[in-house]
Q: What sequence folds into this?
């Protein structure tokens, strides 16, 4: 709450940003100490909403992450003008259930947005996410204009020193990343760390300045409070948007973790790859931005 | 007949059509369906006429109806359907309100002026003759609908967007995102902006001071329909016996075509606005099937005494005529622009390039015309540059060309891949095009249509110059004509032109500046792309198995 007061009271942007980072860090420290029953939950064999209910329940419920009156920001992958079956965007059924759970936990407002690659209104519509979020009582937010993005500093960033992020990242209390697991021609694999790229305005800068390092650097600015990886439909090849339905397999899986690096490492395993091969996961793990070594984690495996 | 009711009906209908079309052109939110677009442009004479000629098997009734209406009732097109004409009426109306207040209490008055018949028909010839040689440039420049479209898109739309963004910003501060959203505009080529502004300003000035002078001097549709309306069945008839020569009718005639002295009306200039009918107190003006006699009434061409009718010295319409004829003549000669795209021909820089700047200019030999246009040559012959597709394109990739096609294609839209990409699953431009320059295509046709071919310049590529992974091009490629292959420890793009559709997604996404490492070179004649081969992806994970 203090963080919000700082920002809404209209103190200069620089101070606000600094405060956000500082308090964000403290939040994370406390969160790290707070006892969750598991570091990571992997669920298999159910529908997206059912898997999420079971998974989050085993972590102690949504109230572990969302407190009454808080403003929640959910960042799914809505990058492409594709229907859910094509495996290019996060499953709308999952996004809907997360919005519902947040509101049930007492969230004041739940916002959902993405900086899309295709024309955003078509992405929002055809992904089914706009409808799902509105039905659940959440709000879709545009991310298509540079005017929605605010300059922030990345303290300790190796390549990424500053960037423009969506204004809601600065004003939300809880930040939830809901990526889809898929193949990606640029970053090899697209999970939660790649999903963060949809929070920034200038993606070209990342492409120009060591993509993998920038993806790791982003986490120095902000880590999601919760990551839910949708692996129901998985785009195995020709990612990130796919050429045809041939590229998609039905995996019916989900990974939930507070640690974005751990979630990405586990999802990579599901994809059939070694996280150590994936440059950005490896860089983030080595920098201590999260745990890449799954053997160090307390994992709950649920089969439905 | 109730003339007042007729006039009111005319005013209501004309405002309806003006607002309707203006909405279509300024709608950056794409709130309207393609049927709405079709309805809005239905009565537009030039596009409808062109569609009848250019698209085989299609009968577009808009132009036919306009012709029938003209034969019966005179130039109602100009007073009811033509957005540019009605726009001028709005300007004249404002002018009447403002100048009346300043000078005297009387309303602003028009007075009879002679027709510039020779100029009118010469201009019509300048528009039509190049058509015989396959150049539509003069129609593009002067068709009132297309001109209005460009004025609305280039000048009016940005104003609407700026106002929208101000309100959206205010709402966003209160966490309200659902009502309005901010929109990033693509600025048109400065040359296009200047040309459109000049035309717009010229038309506003003539309308402000001389009513429908533009329509009755420059406008080819006005001249053409004016010629037909001389033989129209219904006409405004001045009863010489009842007329007291009070001149009230002439004072409200924005076409300046009623000559009280001789009690004659120049029907070629009358736009059937019915203003004169409502002011005549002597029952001398009626609207009825004209008697045979009126057919033979020649248009008065007598010289005007200078004292009574001083000539306007700097007449914008004349200036426009000069500009247009120069371009028209150039078009006649098939004047071609340099092969290169602007920005490419810059002299080589002597100073070393800053780090991260690409060095090899894009080698484009041809621009890219929209999917459905079939070939650049065909497209250049038909498109009147109304900008309807530009405004409809959700990806902002269609932009009016300046010299990309050469002088012959000024104002016609081209695929500006530095500004946007052509979405694989979108056929909107072909669906809204009113002239048939872009022929409607199905999604299946679009998927196998190659409008250009991908080219790769390794020397500009991030993977080569910065020695880091990038892959933005392949990421955006819908067919994987651009795919990543191992390059040492990195991955570099490889291209397969056979399955490339030329959508420009790679070019748009490529982060190198000022020259792209990957770009699309247009196909002068659109070709067929091969269907990408796909293999069924395999799931290595067994049901219920966890890989860790």
A:
């Amino acid at each position: 709450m203090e963080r919000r007061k700082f920002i809404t009271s209209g103190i200069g942007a620089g101070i606000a940003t600094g405060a956000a980072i500082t308090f964000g860090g403290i939040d994370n420290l406390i969160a790290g100490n707070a006892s969750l029953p598991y570091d990571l939950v992997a669920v298999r064999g159910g529908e997206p909403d059912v898997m999420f209910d079971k998974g989050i329940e085993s972590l102690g419920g949504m109230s572990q992450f969302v407190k009454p009156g808080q403003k929640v920001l959910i960042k799914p992958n809505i990058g492409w003008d594709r229907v859910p079956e094509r495996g290019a965007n996060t499953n709308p059924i999952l996004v809907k259930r997360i919005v519902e759970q947040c509101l049930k936990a007492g969230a004041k407002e739940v916002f959902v947005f993405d900086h899309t690659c295709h024309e955003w209104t078509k992405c929002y519509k055809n992904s089914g996410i706009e409808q799902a979020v509105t039905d659940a009582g959440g709000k879709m937010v545009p991310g298509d204009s540079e005017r929605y993005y605010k300059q922030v500093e990345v303290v300790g960033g190796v390549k990424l020193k500053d960037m423009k992020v969506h204004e809601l990242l600065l004003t939300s209390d809880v930040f939830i990343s809901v990526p889809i697991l898929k193949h990606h021609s640029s970053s090899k694999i697209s999970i939660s760390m790649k999903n963060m790229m949809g929070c920034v305005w200038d993606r070209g800068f990342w492409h120009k300045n060591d993509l993998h390092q920038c993806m790791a650097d982003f986490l120095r600015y902000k880590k999601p409070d919760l990551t839910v990886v949708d692996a129901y439909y998985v785009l195995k090849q020709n990612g990130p948007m796919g050429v045809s339905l041939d590229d998609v397999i039905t995996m019916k899986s989900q990974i939930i973790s507070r640690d974005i690096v751990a979630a990405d490492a586990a999802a990579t395993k599901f994809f059939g790859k070694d996280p150590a091969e994936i440059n950005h996961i490896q860089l983030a793990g080595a920098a201590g931005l999260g745990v890449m070594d799954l053997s160090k984690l307390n994992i709950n495996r649920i089969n439905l | 007949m109730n003339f007042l009711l007729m006039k009111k009906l005319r005013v209501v209908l004309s405002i309806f059509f003006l607002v309707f079309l203006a909405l279509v052109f300024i709608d950056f939110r794409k709130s309207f369906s393609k049927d709405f677009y079709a309805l809005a442009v239905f009565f537009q004479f030039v596009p409808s006429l062109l569609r009848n000629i250019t698209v085989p098997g299609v009968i577009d009734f808009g132009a036919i109806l306009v012709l029938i209406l003209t034969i019966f009732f005179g130039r109602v097109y100009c007073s009811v359907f033509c957005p540019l004409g009605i726009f001028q009426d709005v300007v004249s109306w404002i002018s009447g309100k403002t100048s009346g207040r300043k000078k005297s209490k009387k309303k602003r008055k028009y007075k009879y002026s002679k027709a510039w018949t020779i100029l009118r028909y010469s201009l019509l010839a300048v528009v039509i003759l190049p058509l015989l040689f396959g150049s539509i440039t003069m129609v593009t420049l002067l068709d009132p609908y297309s001109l209005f479209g460009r004025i609305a898109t280039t000048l009016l739309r940005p104003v609407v967007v700026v106002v929208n963004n101000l309100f959206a910003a205010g709402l966003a501060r209160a966490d309200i995102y659902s009502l309005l959203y901010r929109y990033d505009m693509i600025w048109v080529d400065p040359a296009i902006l200047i040309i459109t502004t000049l035309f717009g300003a010229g038309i506003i000035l003539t309308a402000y001071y001389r009513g429908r002078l533009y329509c009755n001097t420059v406008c080819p549709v006005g001249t053409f329909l004016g010629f037909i309306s001389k033989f129209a069945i219904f006409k405004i008839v001045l009863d010489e016996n009842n007329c007291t020569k009070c001149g009230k009718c002439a004072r409200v005639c924005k076409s300046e075509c009623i000559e009280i002295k001789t009690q004659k009306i120049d029907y070629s200039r009358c736009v059937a606005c019915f203003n004169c009918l409502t002011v005549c107190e002597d029952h001398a003006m009626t609207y009825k099937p004209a008697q045979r006699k009126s057919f033979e009434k020649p248009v008065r061409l007598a010289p005007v005494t200078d004292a009574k009718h001083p000539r306007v010295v700097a007449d914008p319409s004349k200036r426009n005529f000069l500009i247009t004829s120069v371009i028209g003549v150039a078009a006649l000669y098939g004047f071609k622009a340099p092969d290169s795209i602007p920005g490419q021909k810059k002299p080589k820089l002597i100073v070393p390039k800053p780090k991260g700047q690409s060095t090899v200019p894009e080698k484009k030999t041809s621009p890219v015309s929209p999917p459905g246009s079939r070939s650049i040559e065909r497209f250049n012959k038909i498109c009147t540059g109304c900008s309807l597709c530009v405004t409809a394109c959700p990806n902002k990739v269609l932009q009016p060309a300046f010299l990309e096609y050469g002088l012959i294609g000024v104002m016609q839209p081209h695929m500006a891949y530095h500004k946007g990409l052509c979405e694989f699953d979108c056929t909107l431009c072909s669906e809204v095009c009113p002239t048939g320059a872009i022929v409607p295509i199905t999604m299946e046709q679009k998927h196998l249509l190659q409008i250009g071919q991908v080219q790769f310049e390794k020397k500009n590529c991030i993977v080569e110059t910065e020695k880091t992974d990038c892959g933005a091009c392949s990421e955006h490629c819908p067919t994987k004509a651009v795919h990543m292959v191992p390059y040492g420890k990195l991955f570099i793009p490889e291209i397969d032109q056979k399955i490339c559709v030329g959508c420009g997604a790679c070019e748009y996404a490529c982060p190198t500046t000022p020259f792209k490492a990957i770009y699309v070179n247009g196909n002068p004649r659109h070709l067929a792309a091969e269907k990408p081969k796909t293999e069924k992806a395999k799931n290595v994970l067994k049901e219920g198995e966890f890989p860790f």
Observations:
- Residues 144-173 of chain B form the longest helix (30 residues).
- Residues 3-296 of chain B form one domain.
